[in-house]
Amino acid sequence: MRDKILKILNPDLPLRSRMFQLLSIIALAEFIIVTAYTIVSGGDGDHIIMMLIGTVLFAATVTFTFHSGSLRLGSTISGLLYYSLYPLTFFSSGGMYGGAPVVFAFALVYVFLVTEKWERVLSLGVCVIVSGLCFAASYRFPDILDRHTALMEHIESFLAILLVTLLLCSLFAFVTGVYRMENRIVQKQKKKIEELNQNQKRFFSDMSHELRTPVNAIIGLNEMTLREDIPDEVRENSMNIDVASRILLHTVNEILDLSKLETGRMEIVNLDYQTTAMLSDIVNMIWLRAEEKGLNFRIAANPKLPRVLYGDEMRIKQVLLNVLTNAVKYTKSGSVTLTISSRPEEDGRLLMIYDITDTGIGIKEESIPDLFMAFQRMDARQTHTIEGTGLGLSIVKQLVDMMDGRVKVQSEYGKGSTFLIEIPQTVVDYTPIGEIDFRKKEIDDKSKYKKVIERPGLRILAVDDTPMNLMVVKKLLRDTKSVVETASSGAEALRMTEENRYDVILMDHQMPEMDGIECLHRIRTQENGKCKESKVVCLTANVGTEMEKLFLLEGFDGYLSKPVKGKILEEEIVRLTS
After folding, report:
1. Are 559 and 538 in contact (CB under 8 A)?
2. Pairing between strand 350-358 and 306-311?
3. What sign does the CA torsion over 510, 515, 518, 521 have?
4. In this predicted model, what pLDDT tens digit does every residue of 150-179 receive, in sequence order?
5. Which one, of 392, 164, 369, lies nearest residue 258 by Cα?
6. For the chain, what percentages of helix, strand and coil (3-state, to nearest 5) are there?
């Protein structure tokens, strides 16, 4: 029992169990004190025997409860046992004139705190009834009270008050102790959660970086294969490799984005963007997927849409591409339609309205409320063969909310769905975009390499700690006739920039000993350096709008994410050297 008593503050035990232990110890102490006082004061022999029996029974009940863990049964029995002895104590200690009223208060508190549900109602009922009968009997038949001397009654009242005071002090100390202990536990858990969040952040960042490095090599080297004059079968295989690699890349991006959203690290970065260019990018990404499934992809943009808007173009494209990709995936035949319109908002902004309608499998009405939950796949019987993580729509909903927009869904099961996405934007240029013909490009054009530049005299330095990435960059820039040199670390890059001048430096970010940001700053301040004015582009696997913003703030002249296409790499070099 001693070990049980020492565990009163054990946070692993239920609070009510600890409360029962504490109050039972106090109640048992009360029994012992009252019994001892009765013996010392020369009380009636029968009264003393009854008190001794009651004390032993109460101690046995509490001990049984401690060892068995039958809290409901033990607390009910101990409460009823306590009140079965109350009349004896009441009438033998002077009733209202002794300590009985204070003991009654203690009994009510004890029963209320150690019992629950119907046991509490039963015990409190018995408590009130027994006490009421005792008080009524003492009032109606005062002669049945065993009145003591005034001194004895004062002593008994004092002892009763002392016991109840002990109860209240013990309760206060107990609650304070529990609060402090729970607070320490909460602080430890908070610290542990923060550490887990940091570990999660590092894990997803490292995972993204580590996965993008081999995917960069796969896509880059595969692009070099597609540039060659190869048989149709080999070209088809290479195109399938490219598609599969980008599906893997999309999955990595979804997991990374969900991690950022859950840890509050996702940021909306607003910049000016061209409405037509944004829509053209979306069309070019979706049209091939739709055609591969034999679907008719339609796009209708209101000619009065403003030419330039202010918002997070990257996140808007991500939202629309996620919904459009789902529409294509879950549509077996028919069409997918994107309609873009707008209406003015009261705050002066323009509400951009994107309506995406498909003729796919549709969504059951009862499934719509769960549609935007992470890892949810609706109608598993029909969708089990369709690839995907179930994260896309969860990310869509959270990104739209972050941009003060909203997304609505209407669907008829078996006939198709409509997603209505509304995102407020600020207008920069009200010039209408006019009639735009978003015609698809030929598939052959997508698979054939078209050189953007040819600069024999251009000197380029690629800095990366992964040899494979350096090989990919050199191959992708091979046809430009530029001089491409490589450095496998920041320190090596500094030695080379001290000896040679380069027009463009392609700098990786995550490198050991000296990362890309530090290397950039040291190149800019290098005492005898020859590349202080060179254009430096961050070519990294650390992706996201917030990362792009960081790199530009640190002084990079451009930002490219891995894996990078040869055309995009060449276009960036043209932009920086024109």
Report:
1. yes
2. unpaired
3. negative
4. 666 676 677 767 777 776 777 677 677 767
5. 392
6. 60, 15, 25
